[in-house]
Design brief:
This protein is mostly beta strands and 143 residues long. It has one helix and eleven strands, in the order ββββββαβββββ. The protein has a single domain, classed as Deoxyuridine triphosphatase (dUTPase) (Deoxyuridine 5'-Triphosphate Nucleotidohydrolase, Chain A), CATH 2.70.40.10. The N and C termini lie far apart (40 Å).
């Protein structure tokens, strides 16, 4: 699949698959230098915009190494890029670690996965079909 991409900033890194066809996602990089203090969050620009085809969505997710080593995650994980959005991809990073974290221009800060999505039409009904779970919510399985 080819995704049209536009560089919005001179320092923007065009994402690619680091290890080839087996990679599900591509890394997104920062175009700003900043210090993410302990407990702080920031909107970090990537300097790129994409045109995701209809029937697909872009899902911005944390990088596992940053999360494991530094406590850097995404506040709204996964962030969703709709197929009709043409603005800059920005990442809401949060420092859940115990030390400040330095972000430099070109640092990989998140990953983007392109996935098929269904367009749902909702139909109001008087009753929903029965299921084995019923209305049981979070924690209802007892596990």
């Amino acid at each position: 699949m080819r995704i049209p991409i536009k560089r919005l900033h001179a320092d923007a890194v065009i994402p690619g698959h680091a290890y080839g066809d087996g990679d599900a996602g591509v890394d997104l990089a920062s175009v700003e230098e900043l210090t993410l203090r302990e407990g702080e969050r920031a909107l970090v620009p990537t300097g790129i915009a994409v045109a995701i085809p209809p029937g697909y969505g872009g899902f911005v997710q944390p990088r596992s190494g940053l999360a494991a080593r530094h406590g850097i995650t995404l506040t709204n994980s996964p962030g969703l890029i709709d197929s009709n959005y043409r603005g800059e991809i920005q990442v809401i990073l949060q420092n859940t670690g115990h030390t400040d974290f330095e972000i430099n221009i070109g640092d990989r800060i998140a990953q983007l996965v392109i996935m098929p999505v269904e367009h749902a039409d909702f139909e109001e009904v008087d009753e929903l079909p029965a299921s084995g779970r019923g209305a049981g919510g979070f924690g209802s399985s007892g596990k």
